[in-house]
Amino acid sequence: MNVRRLIPAAAATALGLGALTACSSDSAATGNTDKFDVVASFYPMAFLAQQIGGDHANVTSLTEPGQEPHDLEISTKQRAQLEEADAALYLKGLQPAVDEAVSQTGIKTKIDAATLTHLEDHGTGGHTHEGEEGHSEGHSEEEEHGRDPHVWLDPVKYAEIAQGVGKAFEKADPDHAADYKKNTEALVKKLNGLNSEFENGLKDTKTKVFFTNHAAFGYLAERYGLTQEAISGVDPESEPSAARVRELQQEARADGVTTVFYETLVSDKTAKTLARDANLRTDVLDPLEGITDRSRGDDYFQVMESNLKALQTAMGAK
After folding, report:
1. Helix H segments across 203-233?
2. How far apart are CA 110 and CA 57, in angstroms?
3. What is the pTM of this model?
4. Going residue by residue through the chain (318 aa), what tens digit of pLDDT does each one get?
5. Burial class (CB in 10 A: 0-12, 13-18, 19+), 77
6. How far is CA 102 from CA 24, 90, 107, 267, in A?
7. CA angle 34-290-10, nearest 5°?
8. How many C-beta atoms surround the C-beta of residue 204 within 10 A?
9. Residue 79 near residue 103 (C-beta atoms within 8 A)
10. Within 10 A of 80 (CB to CB), how many other CB atoms are there?
11. How many angstroms separate the CA atoms of 191 and 14, rounded?
């Protein structure tokens, strides 16, 4: 899967890490506190660290609000953050610059979320269309090996990662191990509850197919028996080809698709063009790579709840 190619260019300033109550982006706050200092790569990792670390952790994110995580470049200041931290939490393959920086640092506790669950190959979530390349452009490791990194959009896999992070925190900061264990159990319970909501909410729908411009929802689709059709290779500022519109029209009629999904802060121009030409609606399905003030919720759980409601409406949940 070519993640970068599937993310519209406008996302470069649209997605990023929203502010967390216990999360700082100031390098001066990292490594100079009496807490367990954790540097997280981007929002889903920072959220886990904050939820599990609780009052004992000082969480700093390398990805700022409004910053597109895939194209993050590490500054000298951020390298110093990593050197001073007690732990680094990242998802190897998603952000090559982070992978390189973490590998070069002497930080003792390096937690790679990709090793805490099984990553799968979901391709582009759709098909190769006329005028599109059917191979990876080698943006990052998960693309080269066909692995989909968007595991946080599956509550079950996210819970698996949470359990691994909790154990790593317990080992790295044994003085607070009991609290980390308690916090992890609470988070996993909440994620299991979210999984049940998705299972119940999507088990009886008129269609099982949804259209999205970002192939981020492969794990979610697989978990709940859905089919993701990504509008890959379509720039948000360009008009879709006539062939692609005809294909979408045919698929929409055949599968009962009603909606074209786009991301929270990405231009809706292409989605509206496709929707108009194929007589479909548009709505937001958030890949949760970051939280901003325009996100439909203040944290992971609220945005996932919004995603569930959007899918239920689009797919005709009974």
Report:
1. 218-223
2. 15
3. 0.83
4. 333 333 333 333 333 333 443 444 443 345 557 899 999 999 999 999 999 999 999 999 999 877 888 889 999 999 999 999 999 999 999 999 999 999 999 999 999 999 999 999 876 444 333 333 333 333 444 444 568 999 999 999 999 999 999 999 999 999 999 999 999 999 999 999 999 999 999 999 999 999 988 788 999 999 999 999 887 644 445 566 778 778 888 999 999 999 999 887 667 777 888 888 888 999 999 999 989 888 999 999 999 999 999 999 999 998
5. exposed
6. 19, 9, 8, 33
7. 140
8. 10
9. no
10. 15
11. 26
**Site of tokens 């951020």:** 78
Euclidean distance between CA atoms 295 and 273, whole angstroms: 23
| Residue owning tokens 């519109």 | 245
Can you read off the two tokens belonging to residue 153?
Answer: 């959009």
Which amino acid makes up residue 86? D
Q: Where are the alpha helices (DSSP H) in 68-217?
A: 76-84, 96-104, 141-144, 155-172, 177-202
